[in-house]
Structures are given as structure tokens and as C-alpha cells.
Amino acid sequence: MKNRYFLEIAYLGSHFHGWQIQPGSISVQQVMNEHISLMLGEKINCMGCGRTDAGVHARKFFLHFDTSHSLTSDFRHKLNSFLPLDILVRKMYACPQKIHARWDALSRTYEYLICKGKNPFYIDLALFSYEKFDTDLMNKASAMILKNEDFTTFSKAHGSQKNQLCRVTEAYWTETDEFYIFRITANRFVRSMVRLLAGTLLDVGRQKITPSEFEERMLACDRSKAGKSLPACGLYLINIEYPENFLIEMAEHS
Predict the structure, then answer these.
(1) Which of 185, 172, 179 has its CA nearest to residue 142?
(2) Tens of pLDDT along 40-52?
(3) Was domain 107-238 assigned CATH 2.60.300.12?
(4) Is domain 3-104 annotated with CATH 2.60.120.260?
(5) Strands (E), the chain
(6) Whole-number Å distance between alpha carbons of 162 and 217
(7) pTM of the full predicted structure?
């Protein structure tokens, strides 16, 4: 009988070709598989809560794996000491076999970070821009996203997903002294959706297109109507939501 464990991890995506294993490239999934397999002495295949593209970061990402071993919370500390510095295991959970990191997730939340000008402390961690954006106009356009379900306009051409339907529950911009931040939550996302949405919304903020024109492009379900896809460096997966009391964290040993 195999035991199933969930891990909550965070990673800096700059040196990874996304989460999913890619031939000839280093991915987060590959690193996790290799390190856990070596520690446990058996082949481990980690299943993630979703896929992040090359260069995208994750503040909160869940994975599960099955093992013949019975593990304690000490395993998390040992794994952290073994993993590269750009991957951190935050929490560990024991769970029933039927629970799945990807299929049982209720929602995912992303943020896109734009730094106001050059900042050496955010190299590969944000998009740098000296432009001024009208966040009121961008939020007016963002509100229209919640009324839409088909995001073909904001999907990558030749993607592997069979449909482009998503249920978005929040989408808005905030502005601070240093940043413009786009936050969006949905039950699922199609490939490149957040970066294409954010890039098109910036055209609203530049007053190149109106909120109404943004809505027209969205409803057209035409990929050629989208704006520029923003670089991966500014995108963060920040939360995954599961049903209440779905996961119970393993107690730390004193």
C-alpha cells in the first residue's frame, strides 16, 4: 500500500523551464522527482497542481507523490537541505490516495508585477517600465473579464488544451509607489492567458484602446486581437485553493 503526501513549495522560476518535465531542459518537476527519489531509494513521480511556463515563479505551489515509505515531518527539513536554493518546501501533508493536487484544486491565483523603472533587486523578478498607466481604465476593462468565459483571444496558438473556457472570479490592478500589480483568480487558466491579458490591459492603460475595445477583442475569440504577451519574469503563482479542511499539515516533531 502506497502512502500519498502533499508538499507546498515555492520556487524562483528564472533557471527552470517551467514546472513540467521537458526533454533537454531543467524543470522544477524533474528536480523534485530526482531529489525525492534519491532520498527514498525508489522512483518518485511528483504530480503538480498545474503547469507554470519557463521563467514563471511560484510563491505557493502544491504537488503530491506516492511512496512505500511512511514519512514524518522531518522529511521536509531533510529535503530542504538537499534541494537547490531556488526551491523551498514550506509545508508537508499526509493525505488519502484519492486526493489529487491538480484535479481537486478549486482555484488558482496569479499576480503580474511591473516595477516602475529600473530596480537591480528585481532583475528577473518583475517587468521594468518607465511608462505611466491609468489603473482606473485598466480596472474598468478588468471588470469585464469576470463576465466572460471563453478566453480564446488570450490563449497561445497551437496550445494543447481542448477548450479555452475559464471561470474568472477576480481580476484587478493595484498601484503602489514602486509597482503596478495585476491579480487574477480563476478555476483554471489556458496557456499564456495571464500574460496576454495583462499585456492587452496595459494597452488600455496607455489609452491605445478603450475598455469597450478591450471587451470587443475578448469576445471576438480571435488570438490576433490580443496585445503583446508580457515576459515571464513578472508572473507569480501566489495561491491554490482547495476545499476546506482538505489538507491537514503534518505536526512537527519536538
Answers:
(1) 172
(2) 999 999 999 999 9
(3) no
(4) no
(5) 3-11, 47-48, 57-67, 87-95, 107-116, 127-129, 168-175, 179-186, 235-241, 248-249
(6) 21
(7) 0.94
Where, residue-wise, is CATH 3.30.70.580 in the chain? 3-104
Catalytic entry in 53, 74, 124, 222: 53
Residue 228, C-alpha cell as written in the block? 503583446
CA-closest candidate to residue 252, choices 7, 5, 79, 73? 73
**CB neighbour burial string for 18-52, b if at least 16 within 10 angstroms, e if fewer:** bbebeeeeebbbbbbbebbbebbeeebebbbbbbb
Query: What CA–CA distance (Å, rounded) separates 77 from 73?
Result: 8
pLDDT tens digits for 210-232?
999 999 999 999 999 999 999 99
Contact 122, 231 (CB under 8 A): no
In the chain, CATH 3.30.70.660 sits at: 107-238
Degrees to nearest 5, angle at CA 78 with 48 and 243:
35
66 is catalytic: no
